């Protein structure tokens, strides 16, 4: 083996080791620490059945606004109309105190024990399970969420919702979600 090939092989092995340590170690640490700081994970498969051949999937189109963000109006728990900003960087759906009240929760009685890291800093959150979120034809059930103690300006539609979709794609000024 030539020295260049040996170097390339060693470099590739070091790169793989670095990726493993950056990706797997935090997950292992999180599982070990779960007794003191639980990790909320979103289901990895949608709570829906596959469409019949020839039948199209339910979908919704979400528009990008002038501020550069995608915004969706959703019917939450079949009673509250809430406007969400889509945030693929949020691991769970994040609810403002006010939106939690509008969907029938009593935020003053919730247990704010989870430390939440947001773009604006650190805050405390209360874990809740949303019965349903419906955007046009797309209807997702049992969505994990956090009610944040310090009020944000806007509720966020995070990955605990998006991960339950069949797919989502960005096309120009539209976000297309499919169930």
Write structural notes for this entry.
- It is a single chain.
- With 179 residues, the chain is α+β, with helices and mostly antiparallel strands.
- It folds into 2 domains: 3-35; 59-178, Beta Barrel (Cathepsin D, subunit A, domain 1).
- The chain is built from 3 helices and 10 strands.
- It has helices at residues 3-32, 97-102, 159-162, and strands spanning 59-63, 71-76, 80-86, 93-95, 114-118, 121-135, 138-148, 155-157, 167-171, 174-178.
- Strand 6 and strand 7 form a beta hairpin.
- The longest helix is centred in the first third of the chain and has 30 residues, at 3-32.
- It starts with a helix and ends with a strand.
């Amino acid at each position: 083996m030539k020295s260049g090939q040996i170097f390339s092989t060693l470099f590739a092995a070091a790169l793989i080791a670095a990726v493993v340590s950056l990706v797997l170690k935090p997950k292992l640490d999180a599982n070990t620490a779960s007794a003191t700081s639980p990790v909320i994970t979103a289901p990895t498969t949608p709570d829906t059945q596959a469409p019949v051949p020839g039948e199209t999937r339910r979908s919704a189109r979400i528009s990008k606004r002038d501020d550069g963000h995608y915004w969706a109006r959703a019917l939450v728990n079949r009673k509250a109309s809430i406007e969400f900003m889509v945030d693929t960087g949020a691991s769970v759906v994040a609810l403002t105190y006010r939106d939690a009240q509008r969907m029938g929760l009593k935020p003053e009685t919730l247990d704010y024990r989870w430390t939440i890291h947001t773009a604006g800093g650190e805050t405390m959150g209360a874990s809740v399970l949303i019965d349903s979120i419906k955007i046009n034809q797309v209807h997702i059930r049992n969505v994990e969420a956090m009610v944040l103690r310090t009020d944000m300006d806007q509720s966020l539609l995070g990955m605990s919702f998006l991960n339950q979709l069949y797919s989502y794609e960005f096309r120009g000024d539209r976000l297309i979600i499919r169930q």
